[in-house]
Specification:
It is a single chain. The protein has 263 residues and is α/β, with parallel strands linked by helices. The two termini are 22 Å apart. It has a seven-stranded parallel β-sheet with strand order 6-5-4-3-2-1-11, covered by helices on one side. Strands 7-8 form a two-stranded parallel sheet. The protein has a two-stranded antiparallel sheet with strand order 9-10. It is built from ten helices and eleven strands. The mean pLDDT is 96. Strand 5, helix 6 (151-161) and strand 6 (166-168) form a beta-alpha-beta unit. It has one domain (6-258): Divalent-metal-dependent TIM barrel enzymes (TIM Barrel), CATH 3.20.20.150. The chain has helices spanning 18-28, 45-54, 68-71, 76-96, 114-135, 151-161, 172-177, 182-188, 215-222, 242-258; strands spanning 6-9, 32-35, 58-62, 100-103, 138-141, 166-168, 170-171, 194-195, 198-200, 203-206, 229-231. Helix 1 (18-28) packs parallel to helix 2 and helix 4 (76-96) runs parallel beside helix 5.
Length: 263
């Protein structure tokens, strides 16, 4: 059986520089990091050298939230700017061996504006999926409480896009925010990638184990999941005592999945 791999999102360590976030994640004992770029610098040549020197694999990259307007745009000139950036991002990902790029579903337009506002976004997502496929990178489509709240809705959306390189993933907090059960979601729509964080009442993206999610149920639902277990909480809970909190999270997720404790 393949050894489980555990990663932590650099986005959870905002506002640190990404290279410093990766260093802390490595020091805590994680097997890899999911990079959430925070700047153009983060996917440039100097950042590439810094990430290589860090010696911690980038297991995945989340298309940067700060640059979502470049991806989900209907404006022709911005669309070209976005494709230029996306090519840079994918070259960076391929050079570092990151096998997954995370994106979100787009927001539908009114039917009367679909051709003008929505179709260019759909075409751009399909273009991105093609470019990812060229690089050997999976395009992981994340569930979202406003657009693809349930496993059925995410399946329908991915079937609508109809691209072999666009696969479903599961974010446990987003499932709970939509009122669902992460274990049931995962059983119904096995994910290619995971974002693990907790949820309780109106507090979301908590560190795993600090909310109401049934984590043994999530583990059991995953079955023979072969992807990386990526912890992706909110940075709001990591503004101090970062090394201790990272070790705590690795200890929790490793004990959950393997029944052992991190050293």
């Amino acid at each position: 059986m393949k050894k489980p791999l555990y990663a932590f999102s650099t986005g959870a360590l905002y506002p640190l520089r990404s290279r410093d976030a990766v260093a802390l994640i490595k020091e805590a004992g994680f097997d890899g990091a999911e990079l959430m770029p925070q700047s153009l610098y983060d996917t440039g040549a100097r950042s590439l050298m810094e990430m290589e020197r860090a010696g911690l694999p980038l297991t995945s990259i989340h298309y940067p939230l700060a640059f979502f307007p470049l991806l989900y745009t209907s404006q022709p000139d911005m669309l070209l700017d976005g494709r230029k950036y996306s090519k840079q991002l994918l070259n960076f990902a391929a050079d570092l061996g990151a096998g997954v790029l995370v994106v979100h579903p787009h927001t539908p337009a009114k039917p009367e504006h679909r051709d003008l506002l929505e179709q260019p976004v759909i075409d751009n997502l399909l273009w991105l999926a093609d470019r990812c496929e060229d690089k050997g990178i999976l395009l992981a489509m994340e569930n979202h409480p406003k657009t693809c709240a349930t496993s059925a809705q995410l399946r329908q959306y991915i079937n609508f896009l109809n691209h072999p390189n666009i696969l479903p993933m599961a974010d446990t907090t987003e499932v709970r925010e939509a009122g669902g059960d992460p274990a049931a979601f995962i059983r119904d729509l096995p994910p290619c990638h995971l974002h693990l964080s907790d949820f309780v009442q109106d507090r979301k993206h908590l560190p795993p184990g600090e909310g109401e999610i049934d984590w043994p149920g999530v583990r059991d639902a995953l079955g023979d999941y072969q992807g990386v277990y990526t912890v992706e909480p909110s940075y709001r809970y990591y503004l101090e005592d970062i090394p201790a909190k990272l070790k705590r999270d690795l200890r929790f997720i490793r004990q959950l999945i393997e029944g052992t404790r991190a050293t």
